[in-house]
Structures are given as structure tokens and as C-alpha cells.
């Protein structure tokens, strides 16, 4: 399952974001326990289910929306100097290294200072927080590289190793792929034994850029001055205005039967009489949703997974005519795979044995045979034929 890290300074609204994103109706969730550990939960990406396109009922989606689980990790402890071990620094960064992508929750209202202490709305510049996480990550990576660099450079030189390959192996725990290292080396444009500290910093920064893909949740947008939101949106980053607080309120109201609301909807429907206080809050929420096209929480998750990390959705089936598994379940699974994944790679993802004994596959929509190198497309439905 994809792992997403949730980062942000204290009081930015990380816990609220985490709670809202992992609080989900049983009708939607195929994971009954949404919180695995205190800081690890299951959130969902929302996608148009392929069943509508096929003109069938799958029973797995709600109003044509399919919710696919992703792991969300609330990574606490981001404070200035985290890379030097301040706060929960080391733990914070260690937790982030498992994450494939990061949602950086920023207090867009500017009502918390750099350490998370409350100040007046607009008194702190949230753009500083965006820069600050980037810099912490860069410094942390630089620190790791610096500690190992002499040894790495010497061995590459003496043992005539391929630099990108060797560095990738040596930094295995950080999840770099060889192409990422190669690309970063190219930017520096020098042999590894000639790297100065400055070069190593550039190298660290380039690696961070390709490895730690991020969206910024401009949170507390409900009380943020417009100019701060504008400032954040003008950055060369992917920024989504959010109100985790409103999202949490909506999910709770939906869970308790007051409203009909699916995570990611742009509006909701009131189902039960409300008291004045509830009515007022829901009116406020509705106005916010109108302005931003929703609360932004689902949008932040979706944007990271689909637009930034480039995932697509595919549906493996065993019966290419009925679109079912062997037990007759219609479109039982929706898989998230990276754009460019081949059908053989999908077979491996389903089961190593299926991958190993792969013979061919069938594109169930077009009813044609496809070979192992076929690159999967979004919403493909495929039957894999293997010798097993
Ligand atoms: N207005 C508004 N308040 C929010 C929003 N999200 C969170 N808050 C409030 O901001 C405060 C901090 O939120 P938390 O979710 O506890 O923040 P955190 O980032 O997890 O903080 P730490 O646990 O200290 O790391 C709480 O009082 C929340 O109710 C939001 O979208 N809008």
C-alpha cells in the first residue's frame, strides 16, 4: 500500500487532518480499523469507479465513487533544527523516509509562529514554513551524505564502481532509485571525489526534490486572510487550500446521520433537523466549500497520489466477460499502480507466483489479448492468465 507522510509544525492542524482523513464510513471502507497505530491510519483516494463505464453494478463504490486505501503516517516532531536532532528530529525524519510522498500541513492563517505557538492571525508568514520543511529535509539528507561521503567517494574511485549505482546501494534505506541519483549527479556535474560541501548540498537538494514529492495543504484556510492564501498559491509548489477542521466536522456529521456527504464532495445534503449552532457551522462550511470546491482534504490526498506521484487505477479480474473474480465478486479490487507499470509487473504485485508463471493477459474492456510489456492505462480491467 502507498504510504503518505503527514508533516507540519506543531499546531498547524496535522492531527485534525489525520483524524478527518482516516475517519470514514463503513460503507466506503474495506478496512474496518482505520487506525493501525496511534500515528498510522488508513485514508483513501477517491476515484470514479469503472463500473459505471461498463454499465454494471459493483457494489464496491458509493454513487459511482470508489475509495482506495492508502496508508497515512502522522509524522510528529517537525521543529526548527529537527535535522540536528531537536524535538523529535531524528524520529521525525526516520519516519518520513518510508513515505512515498508528503502532505505538508501549513497553517495558512499565519496564527502560529515557527515553533507552533499561537499568535494573531496573519502575524506569521506561512511561506516561511514551506521553505523551512524543505530546508530541514535538505540539511538532514546533507548530514547523512556528509557522514558517508569520504568512504563512498573513495570506494567509487578505487573499486571503479558505477557512481549512481553504488550511491543508490549505499543509501538503500532512503528509498532512492538509481535514476534519481543519476539525475542529481548530473545537476552537480562533477566527479564524486571532487565534491565540495557546497556540491554535496546541491546534490542533497536535488535528491530531495525527486525523492520527496510533496503537496502543501494550506490549512486553516477557513480563517486565513485571502492575501496569505494567494501568497501560498503563487509559490512554485502544489498548494491546496484546506480546512481540516471543516472536513472533520463534515465526516462526524455524516457518521451521525445529520448529513449526506462523501469525502471530496463539493457540497452536502442535510438529512436531520439541526440546532442553531449546528446550522450556523454548516452554513459557514458550505460557504467555504463553495469558494474552494470542497474542504480540500480529499483533494490534497488525491492530488498527491494521482498528479504528483503519478498513480493510476487498474482492476484485475478473473472473468473477462463478467468482470468478476472466481467467486463472482464484481470488480473486487482496485489497484493503484504507477503510470508506466506493465501488465507483467501488475501480475507480480498480485502475487509473485502469478508474475513468475505469467503467460498473457486480456484487456477485459476490449476483449483483446495483451502481452507482458503492455503498459497499463487508468481504469484498465485486466485478466491475467498464468500457468498456476
Ligand atoms: N480554523 C481552523 N482550525 C484548525 C484547522 N485544523 C486544525 N485547527 C485547529 O488548530 C489547532 C491545532 O490542531 P492540531 O490538529 O492539534 O495540530 P497539530 O499540527 O496536530 O499539532 P501537534 O499535535 O502539536 O503537532 C486545534 O485547535 C485545531 O482545532 C482548520 O482547518 N481550521
Description:
- With 388 residues, the chain is α/β, with parallel strands linked by helices.
- It folds into three domains: 3-128 and 213-306, Rossmann fold, CATH 3.40.50; 134-211, Orthogonal Bundle (Helicase, Ruva Protein, domain 3), CATH 1.10.8; 312-386, Beta-grasp domain (Ubiquitin-like (UB roll)), CATH 3.10.20.30.
- It has 13 helices and 14 strands.
- It has helices at 14-22, 50-54, 89-96, 126-158, 163-170, 178-188, 197-211, 226-233, 244-255, 276-292, 297-308, 343-350, 352-356; strands spanning 3-7, 35-37, 40-48, 65-74, 101-107, 213-219, 239-241, 259-260, 269-270, 311-317, 335-338, 358-363, 368-370, 380-386.
- The strands form three sheets. A seven-stranded mixed sheet has the order 2-3-4-1-5-6-7, with helices on both faces.
- β12 and β13 (368-370) form a beta hairpin.
- The longest helix has 33 residues, at 126-158.
- The chain is flat, with a radius of gyration of 23 Å.
- The mean pLDDT is 91.
- The structure holds guanosine-5'-triphosphate.
- The site of guanosine-5'-triphosphate has 17 residues, from α1 and α9.
Amino acid at each position: 500500500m502507498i504510504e503518505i507522510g503527514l508533516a507540519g509544525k506543531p499546531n498547524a492542524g496535522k492531527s485534525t487532518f489525520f483524524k478527518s482523513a482516516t475517519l470514514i464510513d463503513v460503507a466506503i471502507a474495506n478496512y474496518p480499523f482505520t487506525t493501525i497505530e496511534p500515528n498510522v491510519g488508513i485514508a483513501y483516494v477517491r476515484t470514479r469507479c469503472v463500473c459505471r463505464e461498463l454499465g454494471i453494478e459493483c457494489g464496491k463504490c458509493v454513487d459511482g465513487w470508489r475509495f482506495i486505501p492508502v496508508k497515512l503516517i502522522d509524522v510528529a516532531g517537525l521543529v526548527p533544527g529537527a535535522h540536528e536532532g531537536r524535538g523529535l528530529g531524528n524520529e521525525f525524519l526516520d519516519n518520513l523516509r518510508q513515505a512515498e510522498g508528503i502532505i505538508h500541513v501549513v497553517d495558512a492563517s499565519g496564527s502560529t509562529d515557527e515553533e507552533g505557538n499561537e499568535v494573531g492571525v496573519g502575524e506569521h508568514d506561512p511561506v516561511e514554513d514551506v521553505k523551512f520543511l524543505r530546508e530541514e529535509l535538505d540539511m538532514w539528507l546533507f548530514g547523512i551524505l556528509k557522514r558517508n561521503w569520504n568512504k563512498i567517494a573513495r570506494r567509487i574511485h578505487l573499486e571503479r564502481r558505477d557512481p549512481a549505482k553504488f550511491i543508490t546501494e549505499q543509501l538503500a534505506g532512503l528509498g532512492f532509485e538509481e535514476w534519481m541519483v543519476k539525475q542529481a549527479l548530473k545537476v552537480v556535474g562533477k566527479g564524486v571525489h571532487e565534491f565540495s560541501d557546497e556540491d554535496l548540498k546541491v546534490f542533497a537538494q536535488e535528491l530531495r526534490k525527486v525523492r520527496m514529492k510533496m503537496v502543501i495543504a494550506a490549512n486553516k484556510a477557513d480563517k486565513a486572510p485571502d492575501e496569505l492564501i494567494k501568497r501560498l498559491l503563487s509559490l512554485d509548489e502544489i498548494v491546496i487550500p484546506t480546512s481540516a477542521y471543516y472536513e472533520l466536522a463534515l465526516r462526524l456529521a455524516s457518521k451521525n446521520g445529520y448529513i449526506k456527504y462523501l469525502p471530496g464532495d463539493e457540497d452536502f445534503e442535510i438529512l436531520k433537523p439541526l440546532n442553531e449552532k449546528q446550522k450556523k457551522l454548516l452554513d459557514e462550511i458550505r460557504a467555504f466549500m463553495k469558494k474552494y470546491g470542497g474542504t480540500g482534504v480529499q483533494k490534497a490526498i488525491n492530488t498527491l497520489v494521482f498528479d504528483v506521484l503519478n498513480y493510476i487505477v487498474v482492476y484485475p479480474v478473473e472473468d473477462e466477460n463478467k468482470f468478476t473474480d472466481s467467486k463472482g465478486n464484481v470488480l473486487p479490487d482496485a489497484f493503484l499502480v504507477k503510470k508506466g507499470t506493465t501488465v507483467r509487473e501488475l501480475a507480480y504485485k498480485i502475487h509473485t507466483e502469478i508474475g513468475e508463471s505469467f503467460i498473457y493477459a486480456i484487456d477485459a474492456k476490449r476483449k483483446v489479448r495483451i502481452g507482458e510489456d503492455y503498459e497499463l492505462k487508468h481504469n484498465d480491467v485486466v485478466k491475467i492468465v498464468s500457468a498456476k
